[in-house]
Amino acid sequence: MRFCCLLLKLLLLAGMFGSQGCSSVAPWERGNLAKEEMSLDPYPNLSHIRDHIFTSREASQGGRTGSGGGCGCN
Known about the structure:
Largest sheet: none
Helix content: 40-55%
Structural class: mainly alpha
Number of helices: 3
Strand content: under 5%
Number of strands: 0
């Protein structure tokens, strides 16, 4: 029974490592990946302003630091 569990865990672990994708990027393709649109947050200043407006209007935190009231006057 213990051998089956250990074998199953090892197979799952090997499957996780085997399913990770590794690919090489050609030098002429790297310019496309370096574009601003490809970043996780392409417009950080705009996102910060929108988050501030949302948290002050909704009187909620949004998972970020800082506090705010519902009146939008913080």
